Records
---
Amino acid sequence: MLWSMPAIPQRLTRKEYDARVPKLREDLVQLQVQLKESPFKILLIIAGYEGAGRGEVINTLSGWLDPRGVETFAFQEPTDEERERPFMWRFWRSLPTCGRIGIYAGSWYTEALREETFSRITAGEISKELERIQHFEKLLADNGTLIVKVWLHLSKVAQRDRLHALESNPDTAWRVTPEHWYHFRNYDRIARAARRILRSTNQPSAPWTVIDAEHERTRNAAVAKLILTRFRAHCRKHKATTKNLRMAAKPLQPAGLKRLQALPLTQSLSALEYEQKREKWLGRLNQAVRAAHAAHRSVIFVFEGWDAAGKGGAIRRLTSAIDARHYRVIPVAKPTDEEKAHHYLWRFWRHVPRAGMVTIYDRSWYGRVLVERLEGFASTAEWRRAYGEINDFERQIASHGTIVVKFWLQISKDEQLRRFREREATPYKLHKINAEDWRNRRKWAGYEAAVGDMLALTDSSFAPWQLIAANDKRYARLSILKTASKQIEASLGTSIV
Amino acid sequence: MLWSMPAIPQRLTRKEYDARVPKLREDLVQLQVQLKESPFKILLIIAGYEGAGRGEVINTLSGWLDPRGVETFAFQEPTDEERERPFMWRFWRSLPTCGRIGIYAGSWYTEALREETFSRITAGEISKELERIQHFEKLLADNGTLIVKVWLHLSKVAQRDRLHALESNPDTAWRVTPEHWYHFRNYDRIARAARRILRSTNQPSAPWTVIDAEHERTRNAAVAKLILTRFRAHCRKHKATTKNLRMAAKPLQPAGLKRLQALPLTQSLSALEYEQKREKWLGRLNQAVRAAHAAHRSVIFVFEGWDAAGKGGAIRRLTSAIDARHYRVIPVAKPTDEEKAHHYLWRFWRHVPRAGMVTIYDRSWYGRVLVERLEGFASTAEWRRAYGEINDFERQIASHGTIVVKFWLQISKDEQLRRFREREATPYKLHKINAEDWRNRRKWAGYEAAVGDMLALTDSSFAPWQLIAANDKRYARLSILKTASKQIEASLGTSIV
């Protein structure tokens, strides 16, 4: 249907419209009742020419829908909190929760359209931007989101007539601004840009629909009808996801598992050696992080590792080298209900640091391909898809200038047993061990396969995995300080070695 | 205990400290286990002189506590999203949820201390700022929050020695910055300012404790001990809240009820009259809101009223006059679990608009003194306290320049019955009516008393109540457009009448 203008539809007379609206309203509200109980959301993007009535369509729909289940978004100039984070952050933070409708008056297309129209950026840059949009929409659609994208079409003549009509009525004249006429003068450029952008973002999971906006009543009814049609098709398509725990426990990429198992775990440091070297590396890390801060570069640390591998202790040593005003530790436990009502990456996007700040994730998005894979919380399709989604997420952060340091803390199965027993015997460590830890331990081989795949499939130049031999806590802590310092220095191009 | 220096405590030797720490850690973790199940949070504010070891205390405590239940906060320069909202917004957004500990390296005291020390603002301004802090802490404490405020004391000589010691060791020299020495040179001024600020914010519900920070081990142990002591006392004090539904249904302030009942409800507008006037007032409201936007003044609309009073319809007419990019409707329904784990005002603070933007609350914080009062969701003490808390909240918003327009949509009991029946008979309106609406209706007299009290006790010059006769929908909608336009114009001093 894209861009092939639909055959001029029968224009609805006032009488036909009035007769049709009550049923449309009833159907829309029924849709919302059904949606409310569904594990997905609807994103409705209303784009189109100036004067095509984007605002009116949105106001009309808002009047028909139950407003308690709808949020309308528009985007001004990015705030400094937004500018200091990857471009898509502002859209991630705006996403409605499952069961709700988000209506986008402005969206991730607004900037792309403007830039494409006025050639403000190069063709390469615009391709990248469109690719980012494609990935974003695919990621949400893969997760069940229904994405309805509408382009309100208006011929050049119709645009002029619409603006004139509004202007000549003293009661509506305020609706027309000089910006509208500027757009009119650039109609052809905008049309060309829109055609290119719509074509390249017209994906099966997020198709565009062009709606003729010349006739207001017909336009409103068409948008409502489209939402209803797409929703019904979406519900039919929605299949049960399959879980295959047998497959979850087998490696996809044996190379990763080999790399993990090849890591020597016998290195250790005496208390004296550790004391001697610690302050030096704390100082060096402090300098590296301060240099990053001064350069407005953020740092994200990801700590993953076996239960009892020493993540908490390592994080506390690491943070002791960083100004308390500059870092934040995000302990990742069970998601809240707001988090559960979003895509699994939402809760991590939420905490992406501002320019110059440090975020330390104590466990992370890798839960998707570790615990969620092994326990069947994610279907086979979901966790297999996650490697690509995660790479894409990290690429976006890294492209923004953020330094991504990822640690896997590796211990042997015997060492874990020793630590579990120690925890059980030490009153103030007792809270760190529970039945779940023992259950996870029994699935060691399965987790090992999953860790191996993670190492093989998400080890990128922009976010490499750092394997840390952690059987000896002092050795591990010092390795982490060293590795962190060196990776940050290398990223800044300021290695002092 | 405030500012009377505690008798110099026995300094803990390394051996004594090492012997004591395991028990402290165990007790702290036990505290967290108990806190996790409690309906309150702990805020720990660590203030004090430079070099007194605020960062070290926080790092030590973070090492002793289970980091999954702790969040540490520090505050940089406010971001533009923060600057464009009332001062306390950034602290509201930082508050941890119930069951957790928030550690504040910087806090709402940081700015006050700096301003008081260097006399950057007038005595009147500083008093207002301290009053705001008192209100904020009292509000949280009244709601059950345990607030522990620590001032780490260091004599001038001790401060100098500490800085010298750090500087002379090449491994720790990086910890000392020119700012530290600047503070040392201003020791006396800072001491005087701190004394004044601590005295005037030393409330029974949020007392200060001064801890001698000269000896590091003793200092660390003292802070940990203080948290434990305060937590135990807090748990003992925590009584069951009383609910008295009989009292909830009786008016506190009959004047408000009289005002409500005196409102004539017979006015109406013909369809023709409404059509004639609507566009004019929509245009005028549009101009008023655009003028507010241009002046970076925000507008908050509060819509309250009986079930079926026509809030939704009135909001849709109102928003049709506002640029979709500038407003946001917040429908207030059941709180999410993140919201439930906060003070009841948190979910409203969350949506306070940026400069120049409009937020429309479809129901609001007044739920506290309406439904929560009548249904016993809030105890008698809680809803009675709420009038003052709400006035304080609205004063803060209004002082920041936000225009607060509050509507109560009044209909008669008969009119409500008619609308309920109509809703039940109209398929697309059926979702708007349920058993709860009928239940609320049976409590009409009680709700009327509560509405009266609300009108009497929260009708302020900075956030006045606008009573709207809403038996006739057209009349109500036009009244709302008129009232909104006029209040905004008056606030801007740009009335065009």
---
Amino acid sequence: MPDNKMPGTGAKGTITVNMQPVGRRVEISPGMSLLEAAQSAGVELASLCGGLGVCDSCKIRLVRGELTPPTIEEQSLFYPEQLEAGFRLACQAVPLGDVKIDIPPESLTTPQRLQIEGQSAEVELAPAVVGADIKVEVPDIHDLRADTRRIRDALIASGHLAGGGALRFSPVVLTQLSKQVRDLNWSMRVARHGDEVVSILPIDTAMVGLAVDVGTTKLAAYLVDLTTGDTLVKSGAMNPQIAFGEDVVSRIAYCQNHTDGRRTLQRRLIEALNELLSEMCRMARLERDQILDAVVVGNTAMHHLFAGLPVNQLGHAPYVPAVSEALDIPARELGLELAPGAYVHLPPNIAGYVGADHVAMDLATGAWNAQRTTLALDIGTNTEITLNHNGRLLCCSCASGPAFEGAHIRDGMRAAPGAIERVQIVDSGEGAKIRLQTIGDQPAVGICGSGILDAIAAMLQAGVLDRRGALVGSHALVRWRDGLHEFVLVPAGETGHGKDMLITRRDVNEIQLAKGAIRAGIETLLAEAGIQSQDVQDFIVAGAFGTYISIHSAIQVGMFPALPESRFRQVGNAAGAGARQMLVSVQQRQIAQEIAARLEYIELSSHPDFTNEFSHRLFFSDFKKEGLTAEHAENTEKIRQKKK
Amino acid sequence: MPDNKMPGTGAKGTITVNMQPVGRRVEISPGMSLLEAAQSAGVELASLCGGLGVCDSCKIRLVRGELTPPTIEEQSLFYPEQLEAGFRLACQAVPLGDVKIDIPPESLTTPQRLQIEGQSAEVELAPAVVGADIKVEVPDIHDLRADTRRIRDALIASGHLAGGGALRFSPVVLTQLSKQVRDLNWSMRVARHGDEVVSILPIDTAMVGLAVDVGTTKLAAYLVDLTTGDTLVKSGAMNPQIAFGEDVVSRIAYCQNHTDGRRTLQRRLIEALNELLSEMCRMARLERDQILDAVVVGNTAMHHLFAGLPVNQLGHAPYVPAVSEALDIPARELGLELAPGAYVHLPPNIAGYVGADHVAMDLATGAWNAQRTTLALDIGTNTEITLNHNGRLLCCSCASGPAFEGAHIRDGMRAAPGAIERVQIVDSGEGAKIRLQTIGDQPAVGICGSGILDAIAAMLQAGVLDRRGALVGSHALVRWRDGLHEFVLVPAGETGHGKDMLITRRDVNEIQLAKGAIRAGIETLLAEAGIQSQDVQDFIVAGAFGTYISIHSAIQVGMFPALPESRFRQVGNAAGAGARQMLVSVQQRQIAQEIAARLEYIELSSHPDFTNEFSHRLFFSDFKKEGLTAEHAENTEKIRQKKK
């Protein structure tokens, strides 16, 4: 480091801001705020209030270095323990030297939100498919060994196979082998899955795997280099099965009511994946022959429909899956266009409504072997929850419905350009004003899950809603039309489609059902473990939707317990991350099977606690009271720990 | 046994004749010949000369009991050691009490010769697919195990699976499993191939396997009960690939010259097998779901074309197979319509022209572990030969051509009704007459392999042919027409199609090429082993054609060495028998792999001995001299053994 530079600053008097996990560094002039730093680096930090410090949309966390002290605005927005944990507003905080900051995913705006990168644990590479470059002896009249035999002998001679080691060839590889080895002039890379040769490639060809999270709504796919573990390209698409039913239950009903229904659903899904894969291969300049392995996760119904298994029995109690153990199915049997001999690994399912995607999430988040009491959930049409308390793993699934996907909401839409993703109500009484942020800063055309959650939370805080979810007619932002109260989110003149955007009592009810089910599920698991919400030390929120919600809002509406925000961790598509971990490591597949064996499934539909909790949790609680309770609990805990 | 009956005879003064291996017993009056006995029992013993004792077509061997002494006719037809071994003419021999006789396959006439039962060794049953009848616990709200899991648990509970034992489900079984187990009301027979469930059946369903010998010309198929080892039904068909080339070389050429050629050939073969299987299932009242396993053998080209492997490299030196090791391919990948999860086992190949069918033959005949010096061959378009001398296994393949299949012969045809199968020339000089026997005793329409071999042998003996294979113009049975000599086998008036049936010089040449190649192959192996033909103690002739030929004729034309006939054993379709052995026993599959590992392949095309022998063996030898040589050798051997 040069001597003439100020301590803690970069060369020439500039300051370096290192932004994680996006991995961007930028040099700024002293005095610039973190928001300005982010903007100058092209990092799209959210800024709902335009840098006034009155919303928390540009929230970041200081990892290293020093910032100006918290402003009055920050002191009023954050709890003391949040400030202590390093949470700040990027618009308010100015670096005093080189700093490293962490930008939570919900503070980033992204034009298209299908492509979600989940956090993946560090995994030692041990892919199921390995390659060996060999030079094979050429046949002549004195050496009549079969092609397979001379490949085997070359593998042994080059130390890639023990002398007595087993070696099989995928039947489909055999159909091309003799031509291939001659075209390659007897030098080749042999790709093996266990003891089976799944592809013959030119020497030094990159070996790639495919990880897919098949969501009920969205598909997230990743191409991963099997020799480095690097994600080469990621992409997303809608699950085309949506045309046959928005949620799992309606798709099962479709299969029950249509001959060949499940084959139709399977075919549509596979076609969509093949298209997605084509596009990804094009982007990464890869050939299909190089996609040598795949791991596919999804909920149990998606798992069954992907593998072509019957789903009728998932449609009625006791909701028994056809298969729970891990499967390895030749890709060609499914019609998935990978390398000829490639397999698709499907990790184990737990129950009819807790699938391999949840196992993958438990794996990727580390919830399965956490030392602290940890709750991990993935919010979707069904919300699956795992609670790890003293090493006991409890899990359940609650039917939270598609409201957070934008369905069943009057002006709901998926997270796409023009969707309102952040909502705030500022000032009060007659002067109350609504502030919005849309994806891509485009004129609003609808509201997505994180937006509706924000809206409900803001409406509660501003007194627009009462505890039962009714719109308060006397509030300045509520109007009376056609015999109903409605909350005008955006007047017609300001929307992208020229019509009023409203939130109605029905919309509020949908969110009440969703958040009530999720919270009741959480509480039921806690009760099973004999603990209370305050005992949860790590609260992990996974999934695309969970990544973008405001934890603040989720607590405010009562969906999450009022724990200190520092205990929450939003991890993105952890199911996809878990799939990638299993793609590059057979040990991770083994761990997934251990997780599946350890998970105790709690069936909520017949659980008395759940029914009670659900009816109770439909209402909204007094947020301020809950907030105090949380702080109180935090202090109680500290005192308790000191006593130990 | 009643006291009042004559010693050695049945009740009421009748005599019992027990005929093996056909397994028929008949009561006859004293004084009746064995031929009359066979006729009264409906056993179709050949009788070319009509019972005159001047041909050996009704040759049998006495196993137990007493017959009238050999007639003058028998003494002139058989060598003393043959008579000593019990060989007799059924038309001449009259039982003196209860007798048991063995009827060699070549002494039986059969209307249609595609269905060949090979002799199969006694094999301890250890099929790859085993069944377990279980009652599975029904799911309820307190028992949410997946269907696969509860089947596994039921297998463990019923002692069919060790607690930690592996269990997988074929993906295709999973696609139906949940519906099936509910339709079966949770009681079922689980069929497993190794640790993989390949079919779910009703309790007590018969479990059946398919064994197939895919010949270049003919398909022989057997349905075998896997729990008893019994052959339930056997059937045959022509190999439809004949339309694309009569022999292996022309089919390989077809594949080289046509895009998708090998896929066409594969598809046609599989279609034919599916049709054959349909018919067999109908006959045995079986469903496809019950056909749980298959073993398919064939020469290397048939093996490759069945499995969809490339054959181009089999078309030119050094004739290297794509694969030599044993394969297990899911039947569904081949399009073969067995039980959903069934596999097809393909035993190992040895070389480009020594395939799994030859390994199967070595297995079924016991040639692989014979204690005596044993030569075993299967005559076809290619003739594969194994020589076992002091435990060393040598093998080779000679291109004997399709003459014995009736191809390239002016009036040749396959062994089908109307084909001449036996030929004899009686009397001599101007009075020389031809005696014939056709399959099914129908008017002659052509001549099949055993017939043409008999004809050439008879022509040699009668002086119609000289040693070089030329027709002797001065012979009464040879005529001169259109500048060529021809032998009129059947004049136009006596044939089924109203045209002369001839044997031409060209026909003779075809047989010279065939027999020359076979004999040269035999001699080359003997030379490799450092022994002479007289040292061969057991000479096993396998294959449909080999079963029906006259050993006498084969020796006479010089195709086989002039060993005593008692050393020859005609065993029928031994490849098919070996396939059936492997179908019912995984140990037999293991032995086949040991055989393949032990067989030393001798490439004849580059072998100097072969070229010399071949040009030498094209000519005919002096049969009588060879005969004396054989007798002499026999005596020499006896003396040698006494000296030891």
